[in-house]
């Protein structure tokens, strides 16, 4: 049995999964009726949810390009990869620097089933996939360290991941462990949900996710800032993902309830 077949057997289609719900928001086909049901329920509560997903992906692309072009980063570690949606992070990084090395990390069987799409990088660069849980950062570092040189700067991407991990479940410990292992000049890129802009919609969305068996945590701007302790924030700081160095007019009206930011590690 191939790895893809084994992964497919491990997919639970009876409960919604965040990666598949997100895939539905983005117009993808790698989701199941249970995921679509939850996604539609969330969209009824907050009609901007699909727009927020698209804004989040656009933030990832802009941040990746900025770090490759302006900061000269040539190594990228993307944890909580999700289902492949083009352009993927490695396509952005390697379009700037063909020799960029990219490691994707996820623990979802459906992502493993589609890992082939994540591995089509440039011949000059390296693109690999690691099956691991974000809550086990030391395992991630051990595996990623076989592919990336952790003594050189790395861009660590935690995109729309940490709102699935509460503070009491070790969210800060995960980030601290990962960042502490990286060399000076490395960067932390993250986005996460907030209730600062539309508290009632976000509260109702969290409830809907909970009914589907998915835990979500909304954090304030100050709480997001705590993940960047000891790092230097790049301009414009911690803002809605749509407002982080936008390249075009925002899609639609209303706020995007996701904060995004990039921080630089200047010393060990």
Mind explaining what this structure looks like?
With 268 residues, this protein is an alpha/beta fold. It has a single domain, classed as 3-Layer(aba) Sandwich (Rossmann fold), CATH 3.40.50.150. Strands 1, 2, 3, 4, 5, 6, 7 and 8 form an 8-stranded mixed sheet that branches. Helix 9 links the parallel strand 4 and strand 5. It is globular. The N terminus is likely disordered.
List the helices and strands and how they pair.
Blueprint lengths: L2 H7 L8 H8 L7 H13 L3 H21 L5 E5 L9 H8 L4 E6 L2 H5 L1 H4 L7 E6 L5 H8 L10 E5 L11 H10 L6 E7 L5 H13 L9 H5 L6 E2 L5 E2 L17 E7 L4
Parallel strand pairs: 1-2, 1-4, 2-3, 4-5
Antiparallel strand pairs: 5-8, 6-8, 7-8
Write a short abstract of this structure.
The protein has eleven helices and eight strands. The protein has 268 residues and is of the alpha/beta class.
Q: How many helical stretches?
A: 11
Any idea of the CATH topology? Rossmann fold
CATH uppermost class: Alpha Beta
Helical residues, percent: 25-40%
Shape from CA axes? globular
Number of strands: 8
Which architecture does the CATH hierarchy give at level 2?
3-Layer(aba) Sandwich
Q: What Rg, in angstroms, do the CA atoms define? A: 17 Å
Q: How many structural units, i.e. domains? A: 1
Uncertain runs with pLDDT below 50, 5 residues or more?
1-8
Main attributes?
single chain, Rossmann fold, alpha/beta, disordered N terminus, globular, 268 residues, 8 strands
